[in-house]
Design brief:
There is one protein chain. This protein has 488 residues and is α/β, with parallel strands linked by helices. The protein is 40% helix and 21% strand. It is globular and about 80 Å long. It starts with 7 loop residues before the first helix and ends with a helix.
Length: 488
Amino acid sequence: MFSKGTSLRSIFSRNYSPPARAQQLPHRDADIIIVGAGVAGCSAAVAFGKQGRRVILFEKSIKEPNRISGELLQPGGVKALKNLGLGGCLKGIGALPCYGYCVFYNNESAKVPYPKSADIPGTREEGCLFQHGIFVQRLRHEAMQTPNVTVIESRVNDVIRDWQGNRVLGVITKAASEERRYQHYFASLILISDGYASTFRKRFLPNKPSVESKFWGLKLFGAELPFAHYGHVLLSSNPPVLLYKIDKATTRIFVDVPAGLESASSSAGGIRSHMLNTVLPMLPRGCQQSFQVAVERGKFLSMPNCYMPDSEQTTPGLMILGDAMNMRHPLTGAGMTVALKDVLLVSGLLSPDNVPSLEDSAAVLRAIKKFHKIRKSSSSVINILAMSLYPICAATDPTLSVLKYGLFRYFQRGGWAVEESCGMLAGLVDNVAVLEKHVLAVLFYSIWLRLSEVPFWKKPWVLGVEAFTLMWQTIVLLGPYLAREIRG
């Protein structure tokens, strides 16, 4: 497969120059090569394959993935999945409907249902809960059955560039079997969707992910949640805890652990001690026994909670999608929804009707630029919402705790306050102005609640000092994300 004099060292060099045939482009193995057969990669393969594009989809292992994220598909994601022709992937996998959230705070609760359906009068939008690995396997099966799509179990080790190092032409792979050596594959467009731990991101994107905290996950068997088909968010003076069903018998629990949390430190007994001493008392009674059993079993899985804003891509022959391109805190469970909406958008912009030949790098780059511009409204709302909700829900300082209490009471109001708020969480409301409106509403409602609970002599202090501090904290909290998301 290699010309004489080609060494492995040169193959894996960032400045590796491919053989002469790559420069002359005598043939393409495919129109599009996709790296990573996760949610974004599989759905993109199906979308482009149905358009008549020749697609090769690479995945280092086609075994069922074992992950503790990607188990809630918001209503906006369900709609995108159906529009991609993949709605059937939610059937036959033990998936459960999700009607919204229920937030608990100091032994009180507030239901936050998804908004009313715009398609079917008298009903509400629904999300979907499932085991991530089973869902991904269904997507992979669908990709394998799609005309023009070839799925290959092989690790992509590097990309191939042209002689000037400007355009990406293909990939270098190595199969799991030792019998097969390194191979070259060439395509008009290389689409990278290798997840949050992407090995290619740092070469092509300027932004780097920042880790906000870590989620520790467990499976609870036989647990009973207070409200069926709702995601449960437990707020207290400790970091938030999430609970939801992923099938009829299994409940997923996520425990947020910020860096340096004293109750989870080694001197306090580590994560197991934090689970039993801090988290267990917070849980609904129907979950406590199964949680204790799960902790004793000790099968903890963890994942970093990352944030990385989108950045415009300008490398000819290459595009990056999914968590490899853009991440937000998973508190709102919107990652798959963003990915599917992105795939739906980019597959339309790069369709043969809009870009007849993917060899036309200038046309492809124009479509990618348009993609970043259009997706801003949708992704910005979800990203800013996720990154601003987390520090409020995890707040321990007095100022942000006022906002946390105000947010909970705001949800209890129901009506307009919940309808639009949950519409944003659901990936259905994409207007940044709506987000700003509700941020201001929560801010002033929090101040009003604070005023109502203090004696008369203290009200001037609240209106002056505390209100100003709260406004300033809100600006500090949201300002950087607004700037990075809108500018990004």
